[in-house]
Amino acid sequence: MKRRLLPSAVVVVVLCGFAEVRAQAGEGAQYLDGIGETALIARYLFNGNSEDWSRNAYHATVHGKAGYFEDEQFGKVLSLPGGSDGGYVQIPGRALADMESLSVTGWVNLKDLTPWQRFFDLGLGNGRYLYCTPVGQERADGCRVRMTAAGYGAEKGPATFRVATGQWVHLATVLDTTAKTLNLYVDGVRVGQTTGVEWTLADILSPEDASENRLYIGKSLYDGDAMLGGKVYDVRFYSIALTDAQVAAIRRNAISEETTDPSGRVTPAVEETDAPVEDAPSVYGAELVAVPDIVAETVVGHLPHLPISLPAEYADGTDGPAVRVVWPSPVDNRQVEQPGTYTIVGAVPGTTLAPKAGVTVKRGSLSKPRAEQQLAPFPLGQVVLSRDDRGRETPFMENRDKFILALARTDPNRFLYNFRDAFGLEQPADVEPLRGWDSQTTRLRGHASGHYLTAIAQAYASTTYDEELHANFGAKMNAMIDVLYDLSRKSGRPATPGGPCNADPAQVPPGPGKDDYDSDLSREGIRTDYWNWGEGFISGYPPDQFIMLEEGATYGARNNQIWAPYYTLHKILAGLMDCYEVGGNPKALEIAQGMGLWVHARLRVVPTETRIQMWNRYIAGEYGGMNEAMARLHRMTGDERFLACAKLFDNTDFFFGNAQHEHGLACNVDTLRGKHANQHIPQITGALETYKGTGEPAYYQVADNFWQICTQGYMYSIGGVAGARNPNNAECFTAQPNSLFANGFSEGGQNETCATYNLLKLSRQLFLFDPDARFMDYYEQALYNHILASVDEDNPGNTYHVPLNPGARKRFSNAHMDGFTCCNGTALESSTKLQDSIYFRSQDHQTLYINLYIPSTLKWSQRNIAIRQSTSFPYADTTRLTVTGSGSFDLRVRVPRWATNGFAVRINGQAQDVDAAAGTYLTLSRSWEDGDTIELKMPFDFHLRRVMDQPNIASLFYGPVLLAVEEPEPLTIWRKVTLSADDLGQSITGDPGTLRFRTNGVNLKPFYETYSRHSVYLDVTLD
Ligand SMILES: [Zn+2]
After folding, report:
1. Ligand 1 geometric centre to CA of 677 (Å)
2. pTM above 0.70, yes or no
C-alpha cells in the first residue's frame, strides 16, 4: 500500500521553536565547507607543501620536476611542468582503502592541450582504475572520467567538452555506489553522468596490501601517457558521494568571501502518492481514535517534563501500543516565568491527533537531588565474564578478548613516542610512531596515549582471571607511568643545574628563536625547551596550542592554528587518573596533579568572556571532559583549586542559557540543537562530577535534564545520537529535537561511537545517584546494539560512525592498534570494561543491583558473598543467579522495559508471587543461604521502535536485541516490510535460540552480529 507522509509530521516541525540552526561552524567553516568532516579523507591545498590538511595525515609525496608557484588567485599553488618526465603527486595507498563511494574535487589550470594528461588516476592498473583527464586525444574525447574493474574494453564514464587552458577550472568526480552512477562536474555544475556503474572503489584497489594501490595526481597509471602540465590547487578526496549542491558549494566557497552551507543529501525516499490522506492506513495498525490529554506540574523557571509516550484509544477497542507524542520544545523558559497555568498542544506524528498538556507552574524549587551518591560499582577485577549456559563464549567475551589480546601485544613505547619527542629525547631503538591522529605533525597527537593508559589500567584490573595477562598489563602501565613521571618533572626546571628556567605556567615564553607561539610539530620546527614550560606540564606536544587557544587561534593545519589541546589533555589526564584509581599506581596521580595545577594557573587569569569564547570555538575549543577530570582530581586530592578549575570549564550558554544563568539545561531548556554531540556529552558528565564536589543542584539538573532531552528527542534505535543533515554535519545533533527523519540520517555517517560511549558513562553515573531503571534500560539498549555492534568480526578493528541508512555497511579500522581516531580510542576503553555495570551495590553494602543479564561471576568480597549468573541471554529469556556464602541483603533485579509479557521469579525452584512492572527494579529481600538460586524469566517479544517524526520508519527488536535485515546491496529507498498488526511475531519465523529470523522474504539477525550490508530501519506497514 502506498502512503504519503501525513501532514501532522510537518506540524511537528512548526511546533518546535526555531533557534539559530547554523552549526557552530563559525571560524572553521571555510575549512570544512560544512560537509561532515569525517567524510573528508584527504585534502591537499598544495600551498607550499603536500601535507594532508584533513585530520587523517595522509601526507602526499611530490615526485619529479614540480615546484610551488605564487598564483594571483589562490596564492601559493603546485606547478607541474608536464611532458613525459614532468612531475606528479603520489598519495599513500592506504588513504582510500576500504571505501566504496568516492568524490574527488580540485582546481586545475592547464598549460596546453597535451592529450590524455591526467588530473588524477587511481587503481591497481591492469584494467582496474578510475581516472579523470581534462583533455583526451581528439576534440571529441573532451574532458572525461573513466572507470573499469574489468579491463580497458569495459570502461565506463561520462564526458564533456575539453576544459579551457590558461585559467582555473574546478573539476569534480563523484562515484555514487548506491545510485550506481559516475558523475563529472566542471565549475560546480554536473555536466555528465553514467548510470549502471556496478563497481565500487574496492573493486579497483587492494584491500589486503595498500602498498599496491597507486593513487596519483597529475600522472597516469599507464606510463606512456603525458603528465599533467599546469597548476593544481586544493585537491580533496571524500568517502561519500557529494551532492550537486555540495560540489557547487565547495567551488563557490573557494572563490567567494562568503561561506555557504551546501544543503545535505536527502534521506532515502518514502514513496509518495497523491492519494488523499484519509485513505492512508494508520501506521499504528488499527485506527487511532484518541490520545488523552494530561496534566503536569512544574516550578517557576523550570520547563515541565512531559511524558513522550501516552496510552492510546483504538477504533476496534483493542489495547494497542502506547504512542509517541511530540511536544513543542521552547528555546527559553519564558512560558514558566510566573506561577499560573498554561496549555501545551502536542502532536502524534502520522495522525492529526493533538493531545494537550495542562501545566501548573508553582512557586518553589525543585526537590533537591540527593547530595550523596547512593550506589557504587564493583572494582573491575571482582566481576569476571563467563561462558554461556551452552558453554559458548559470549559476544562480550569475544570482544573483550579481541582487545585484551591485541593490547597485550602492543609496545608502550609507541604510545610514549610523542611525549619523548616533545621533550626532545631520543626514542628507544626500533620504535615506530603511531599513524593518523598521532603522527608527528598532527596537532592532536597524544590523544591515543590517554585512551591507552585507561585501557591498560582497566585491562590490568580486569584480568584477575589470567595471571600472565595481569602481570603483562601491570608492567606496561608502570613502565608508561615511570617515563611520563620523569618527563613531567622536567617541565619548568633547569635542564642542567643552575641553568635557565621558567616555573610559572602563566609565563611560558615563545619557543627559542621565535617571536610568537606556533603549533609547528615537524621535526625541524618543534620546540623542546621544556625548562621554559612551567612546572608540571605534560602533553604529547609543547604548551603553545593551549596558549594560542587563549589568544583566539582557530582549528586548522596551519602553524598559527590548532586542533583541540584540552581534548587531548582530557584523555591524558583521564588515563593518568585511571592508572591511579583503577590500576593503583600512585605516581600517576602525582603527574595528573602537576598538570592540573598548570591548567589552573593559566585559566584562572583568563577573563570569563575569553573563556566562554574559547569553549565555543569550533573544534579548537573542544575540551572533552576537562571539567570532569578537574572535579575528579578534587575528589581524589581534596585540593579546592581543582574544583575551582572544573568550574572554569563551565559551558555557560549550554548549561545555563546565558551569562546570567537564566535558563539553559539547568531549567530543562533544550540547548542541544545543532551542537556537536561528542563535544558536548562529556561536558555533561563533567557537570555531574562538579555537582559531586560542589553540591550545587543546578549542575545536577544540567546532567539529568540533558539525559532526558538527549535520549528522548535525538536518539536512534541503536542508542546513538547525532547524524545531522541539518545542520550539515554527521557529528552534530539535529537542528531541532524530535526531527531525526526531517533533519537526521545523514549520508556521511550517523552515530559516532564515541558519543554512545560517553552517553553510557553518563547514564551509569546518573544511575548511581538515582537508581531509576530508565538509565539501565538505555544502558542495555546502547551496549548491545551499538557498543557490542561496533567491533569487527575477528579482530579489534572498530567503527567510527555507524551508518543506519538502508543497505549500509559498517566500516572498521585500527585492527593493528597503530592509528587511532577518537572512536578507536574510546573502543579501547569500552572493550576493557564490558563487565563494569552488570552489578552495583548500595553504599552501605545492604543492597545488590542486578542490572544486566550477562553470564558472569561477582565476588562481593566485602560481604564474603559470590553471585554466579548463568544464562544464554539474549539467546534465551531466562537467567539463574546462584549465591555462594550467606547473609541478609536486598536483591534488586531489573525488569526490562521491553519485558511486557511478564517477569517470573523462582527462588530455589519455588515460584514467587511478585508484582513486577516493566521498566522498574523488583526487590527480593531475604536472608540468603549458601547455594540459593534465583531464576528469572522474562519472555521476549517482537516490538518496534519508531522514528519520532516518521512513525512508519521503525526498527524491529526482539527483547533487547535490534534485528537488522541482511542486504545484498545498497538501497535508495527504505526496506519495506508488512507485519501483522495483531502480533508482529505472526509474520516472523525463525529461531530465538540463534536469533536468526525471516520475514517478508528477508533474513534478520542481531545488529551486533552483522558485518555486511544491513538495514536497521524498515518502512513498516501493519496489516
Ligand atoms: Zn569518535
Report:
1. 10
2. yes
